[in-house]
Specification:
It is a single chain. By secondary structure, the protein is α/β, with parallel strands linked by helices. The protein has one domain: 4-Layer Sandwich (Metallo-beta-lactamase, Chain A), CATH 3.60.15.10. Helices cover about 30% and strands about 25% of the residues. It is built from 8 helices and 12 strands. It has a 7-stranded mixed β-sheet with strand order 1-2-3-4-5-6-7, covered by helices on one side. It has a 5-stranded mixed β-sheet with strand order 8-9-10-11-12, covered by helices on one side. Helix 5 packs antiparallel against helix 6. The chain is globular and about 50 Å long. The termini are far apart.
Amino acid sequence: MTVTWEESGWEQVAAGVGRCRLPGWDCTAGLVVGAGAVLLVDAGSSLGEGARLRAQAQALTGRRVTHLALTHPHFDHVLGAAAFAGAEVFGAVGMDTALAGRGREELRADAVRHGLDARAADEAVDALVRPRHAVRGEWTLDLGLGRGGGRQVLLANVGPGHTAHDLAVLVPGDPEVVFCGDLVEESGEPQAGPDAVPSHWPAALDRLLELGGEDARYVPGHGAVVDAAFVRAQRDALAARFGVSR
């Protein structure tokens, strides 16, 4: 038996498209429902959080998550990925390497530094799932899988910016919805860590605006859903902050 978006505590952004704001780091997870497949955008900060997202998605759709898109390789977005056994996992090209070797150690250290329990961090990193499908440019997913009434979702490698491996998800419709990852943040100033590429970040936001257009709803990695004007203002603020000209 399925539940409604409201009953589940998720926010419906468009028909068959929802998001929730996870506790702790206010990280966004997104859900896109097709006739034959279910896409989750980002997996949470731990295996426990991933398992809760999996259960919520099952309750909302009556089906398991079949596809998982990881917007960038930060702990609060990827450490729950192993909870989605059997899902096809997508990330920007190079993300699989970023989550291997020394990258795994840095991911664990970053998670613990931000307050994740060390045991939970160890468990998640040990089980870490890396993207099987590397998106270079754009990749169209068919969530109908031949069952009719499906929808196509566009995965777009729009970075670098917030990291060297930023993936956006465009869901066509009325309105169109763009899952931005941490290229856009509403609940605080965008964070530029040591893996950010500030000189390219404004251009990545220009690409988001090209994808979604003026009437789209833009879902940030942290915070409330925003419009094109907000994304444009954040683009200009980042350009000024990092001394990037058009």
